[in-house]
Here is the input.
Amino acid sequence: MAKILYVVDSYCGSIWYRGHAPGMALKTLGHDVILADRPDERMLADLDVLIVVHNHRPGLLEVIKDMNKRGATTVFETDDDYWAIHPENPAASYWTAERLGEMNRIVRECSVVTVSTEELAQVVRPMNANVRVLRNMLPDEHWPAERKLPNSGDDLVLGWAGSPSHVADMRIILPVMKQLLDEYPRLTVRLAGAPEQWSDPHPRIELVPWVKVEEYASVLQGFDIGVAPVQDTRFNRCKSDLKFVEYSIVGIPTVASQVQSYIGSIKPGVNGYLARNTKDWLKHLRRLIESPDLREQIASEAHAYAQTRLMSTNVHRWEKTYGLDVSVEPSETGSTRA
Here is the structure.
């Protein structure tokens, strides 16, 4: 059994996927897993693996150097290209040259770096040659075992879920959504996590506020079709296909932008659709809106793919990356502490 410490600065968003989710899965295998924002000597004592989840807090660099001397595996984890954040992203102003510089030093000092895509790995390799790709996986406990029953009627919900960081991406899809609302009077658009200023008031555009992680799947289950618009930028090319996997595991078909994030996972016309321009968005979404059989066919194939992306069947990839090649048996002594 290994002692593993994830250093995180919050428990939401990407940190939840890249720290909390693998940590919980490793715990079920019997490892002693700790999640903390400020490691102390008690946590560091006899530590086997230290994972810093895109953190740059002062003092962490010295902790990493000390753990390297003690023979622990030190890992820097990120699933975003913080070196190329879009200026309209609310996080852009936070990542000053000073903060990025401190994070760069941490990246160089760690014995291994883990990322979510090969494109992001290429960004990080100049700073640390030992980069491993661990694709985003879904933690089983927060996602339904069965996909939703298909809606064969005309009262459909076209949905998007995300955060305010996608303001530039949403410019792709909002005009499309409004045109479809005009064409299909029984269609509703539901935007989960979008601020009010993104769209003019409309009787059939619903804004859903952020919810707890445990409630997120139920929000997506309220959609009949999901969209994943993404601008083709360096930052976005390093993003993963997570939105497609999330939509798929609950049982809804996806139309996504034809960008690197989705090209490897979506097989057009089989388990989803890729859109290059407004014409494509309208064509694919109209087909799905008008055909219950097509929605069911695409959703079924997509759900089968998403089942290959559950954390329970992929946690061995984290063990191998951390140098823990043999899974241990579940143990009551495995613990997770904040």
